[in-house]
Design a protein that fits this description.
Layout lengths: L2 H14 L12 H4 L4 H11 L15 H12 L49 E9 L8 H12 L5 H9 L3 E10 L4 E10 L3 H16 L7 H16 L3 H17 L6 H5 L4 H8 L2 H11 L5
Antiparallel strand pairs: 1-3, 2-3
Helix pairs in contact: 5-8, 5-12, 6-7, 8-11
């Protein structure tokens, strides 16, 4: 019943096609209702084994004493070595109007596809736009994260400043960069007044075209870097935030086969700060122009 959820599920399914990324995490009614107790037991046994687990603990403790307690409780936990699902490297865009090269950050420019979901009587139209992005191994991922901050990653970003503050047709417009295991995407989204649907779409495309020119405005990069730095500091201020950072790093180590800059994830207080501090207009401009096909 929620238009934003419908747009997300339909958008992911159309964009990624038969690739596993198209599946919603909570499944569909048709798949969930067929799950039985034995299915749950098998899934539990396959996932929760010593070879698949990493124990992360944050807090005030003595490492040696804690290690002793952990060994006392977990030393007898035995199981098979880690087994991960087969890495799906086929193109998630297979079967679409244009086919992309396999296992590459980006390849070619595909024709624009328009998908409509009718919702009679809706007061707003959900606009959701996908662009091909990068895998998390890509060296351009940090610079593209800064670019996304400029484009739609904050309240004062280009998208929100245009659609909310200037055109006044929405409560908010934003974008997010999802760098995943084999493929990634950038998604831009907003819920606009139904009567302003055409204007909203045209302004989205106008902002994409402007971003694709690779020309940053005065002060944008400094503001984006400051925002990223503040978010980094905030993520390290709480136990949950610190644990989340290291959990991401360990998750990537378990899943990837090599080529990724592990320190960027495992030591965010050092390498992320260096990436932000060394960011230059030329580097981010290059990542904007070469890292995403902003133009339609």
């Amino acid at each position: 019943e929620r238009p934003t959820s419908v747009a997300r599920v339909v958008g992911d399914r159309l964009y990624y096609g038969k690739h596993p990324y198209s599946h919603p995490e909570d499944g569909y009614l048709s798949t969930v209702q067929n799950i039985g107790l034995e299915d749950l037991r098998k899934a539990y046994s396959a996932a929760l084994s010593p070879g698949n687990c990493v124990l992360l603990i944050t807090g005030d403790f003595e490492p040696a004493a804690l290690r002793g307690e952990l060994e006392k409780h977990f030393a007898g936990w035995k199981g098979p070595p880690a087994r991960l699902p087969e890495k799906a490297i086929h193109s998630p865009h297979a079967g679409r109007l244009a086919r992309v090269g396999q296992h590459q950050d980006l390849a070619g420019v595909e024709p624009v596809r328009l998908a409509l979901v009718d919702k009679p009587g809706a007061a707003q139209t959900v606009i959701r736009i996908y662009l091909k992005g990068t895998r998390y191994e890509s060296p351009r991922a940090p610079s593209l994260a800064l670019a996304n901050t400029i484009f739609g990653g904050t309240f004062t970003s280009r998208l929100n400043s245009n659609l909310r503050e200037e055109k006044k047709i929405t409560y908010g417009a934003s974008s997010g960069l999802a760098s995943r295991r084999t493929w990634g995407h950038l998604v831009a989204v907003s819920s606009v007044e139904s009567g302003a649907t055409a204007l909203g779409i045209s302004e989205f495309f106008r902002e994409f075209q402007a971003m694709g020119s690779g020309s940053l405005r005065k002060g944008e990069l400094g503001k984006a870097a400051s925002t990223q730095r503040s978010r980094l500091i905030e993520s390290l201020e709480t136990q949950a935030g610190l644990r989340g950072r290291y959990r991401l790093g360990q998750h990537l180590i378990l899943q990837a086969s090599g080529g990724i800059n592990w320190r960027y994830f495992l030591y965010p207080d050092e390498d992320s700060e260096k990436t932000i501090r060394k960011a230059s207009y030329s580097a981010v401009d290059y990542s904007i122009s070469s890292g995403l096909s902003w133009r339609f």
